[in-house]
């Protein structure tokens, strides 16, 4: 939680960080990197996962940005919306989600590797995984008509380090009702107030 890291309420932290939103990644020298895509590309670079072929690199960026376009309204709806507002948002975004899911599935079908570019998972795959995984909290049935995407989700979940992370990360519960994160056995309502 931002208040754990900065030891301040979010309303005080917000105006002090580069673009007033999370996530940010703070690197060793204190530099704050904002925007999910920039963070993912940075990790790719330091992890030695850069794609040298400019065409393939651009293709991967295309997939990454297409996956990231699922961010809104999916993330805020799953994390914060409740009651009728949640149901309306879920029902309004369903067609768009399915259309993008079908594009991603087709992309994977048209390429030989296990992932979008080859057999290595990089920024594009992790961004995609994040949104597909979250969509299951919005509507557990959504992915059912996309077996290729279910395989992608399983392939990422089965990476040992990811599997360990997924088992230990805070669990998001009561989506659409009163979303909370279970941290060290305690339920913390999602939102901007310190709990
Ligand atoms: N385009 C940004 C979106 C960031 C974003 O929407 N962050 C939300 C949380 S997921 C936030 O910081 N909300 C609190 C606020 O705006 O005060 C990214 O991909 O990182």
Topology, element by element:
Layout: H1 2-6, H2 10-13, E1 24-26, E2 32-34, H3 36-46, H4 54-68, H5 71-80, H6 83-109, H7 123-138, H8 147-157, H9 160-168, E3 171-173, E4 180-183, E5 186-189
Antiparallel strand pairs: 1-2, 3-4, 4-5
This protein binds glutathione.
What would you note in describing this structure?
Strand 3 (171-173) and strand 4 (180-183) form a beta hairpin. The protein has a single domain (52-189), classed as Up-down Bundle (Glutathione S-transferase Yfyf (Class Pi), Chain A, domain 2). It is built from nine helices and five strands, in the order H-H-E-E-H-H-H-H-H-H-H-E-E-E. It has 195 residues and is mainly alpha-helical. The radius of gyration is 18 Å and the shape is globular. It is 55% helix and 9% strand. Helix 4 (54-68) packs parallel to helix 7 (123-138), helix 5 crosses helix 6 (83-109) and helix 7 packs across helix 8 (147-157). It binds glutathione (GSH). Glutathione binds at residues 14, 21-23, 35-36, 71, 75.
How many angstroms does the end-to-end distance come to?
Answer: 9 Å
Low-pLDDT runs of 5+ residues are none
**Strand-residue fraction?**
5-15%
The CATH top-level class label:
Mainly Alpha
Gyration radius from CA atoms, angstroms: 18 Å
């Amino acid at each position: 939680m931002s208040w754990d890291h900065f030891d301040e309420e979010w309303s005080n932290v917000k105006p002090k960080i580069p673009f007033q939103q999370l996530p940010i990644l703070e690197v060793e020298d204190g530099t704050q990197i904002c925007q999910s895509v920039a963070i993912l590309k940075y990790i790719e670079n330091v992890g030695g996962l850069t794609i040298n072929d400019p065409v393939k690199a651009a293709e991967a960026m295309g997939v990454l940005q297409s996956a990231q376009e699922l961010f809104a309204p999916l993330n805020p709806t799953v994390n914060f919306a409740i009651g009728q507002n949640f149901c309306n948002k879920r029902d309004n975004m369903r067609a768009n989600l399915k259309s993008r899911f079908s594009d991603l599935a087709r992309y994977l079908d048209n390429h030989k590797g296990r992932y979008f570019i080859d057999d290595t998972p990089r920024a594009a795959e992790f961004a995609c995984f994040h949104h597909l995984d979250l969509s299951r909290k919005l509507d557990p049935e959504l992915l059912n008509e996309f077996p290729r995407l279910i395989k992608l989700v399983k392939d990422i979940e089965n990476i040992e380090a990811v599997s360990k992370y997924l088992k230990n990360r805070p669990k998001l519960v009561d989506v659409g009702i009163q979303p909370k994160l279970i941290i060290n056995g305690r339920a913390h309502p999602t939102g901007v107030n310190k709990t």
